[in-house]
Design goal:
186 residues; 75% helix
Length: 186
């Protein structure tokens, strides 16, 4: 759930910026404050509609993939990606206050969206990694356990070998035999 919220929020902020840039760079596209609502639509479409459309188009294109050259296959894949972005752009224009008038206001924004997704893909990996680290650190502090890579707190020296094994199992979730088998693997 936490990852979903972080992903939605990051994608939402990114799409607000992309929509404002599209409104600024594209002739015939008016975004303004409608970017706030349009970003909700674009974010939801990116999370749910885009994977569905991509799967459907790829399945349809795969039926005739054997009859195309490698270059032809790449061209078909690029056209499919553009068509998915075009459908998403039309949905954003239709369902929000964003206005598009003229041929270029429907042709250029999907290209800008594609460029935006490439940039977001680069940023998203780092953002998720950092959010995961922060989440793990907070989780460790709240639960009182140690964070991965942090030095283990000193345990009382009293107790048997079984007690020590049980404490070690709590930290990594492995039994002594599983730990030994992993060590033997390399």
């Amino acid at each position: 759930m936490k990852n979903g919220i972080v992903r939605f929020a990051a994608l939402y902020v990114f799409t607000v910026v992309v929509l404002l840039l599209i409104g600024w760079l594209s002739p015939g596209v008016s975004v303004g404050f409608n970017a706030l609502w349009a970003s909700v639509i674009l974010t939801l479409a990116s999370l749910f509609l885009k994977p569905l459309l991509t799967r459907v188009f790829r399945a349809a294109a795969a039926k005739s993939a054997g009859s195309r050259t490698p270059v032809g296959e790449k061209v078909v894949q690029y056209v499919l990606v553009y068509l998915v972005e075009l459908i998403i752009w039309i949905a954003v224009v239709w369902l929000s206050g964003v206005r598009a008038s003229g041929f270029w206001s429907y042709v250029l924004p999907p290209l800008f969206l594609l460029l935006g997704w490439v940039i977001y893909d680069r940023v998203d990996d780092r953002l998720r990694a950092k959010a995961g680290e922060i989440y793990d650190t907070v989780q460790a502090r709240v639960s009182g356990s140690r964070a991965p890579g942090a030095p283990q707190a000193t345990a009382p020296t009293t107790g048997s070998r079984a007690t020590a094994d049980a404490r070690e199992e709590l930290h990594d979730g492995l039994t002594a035999e599983q730990r030994r088998m992993l060590d033997e693997l390399g």
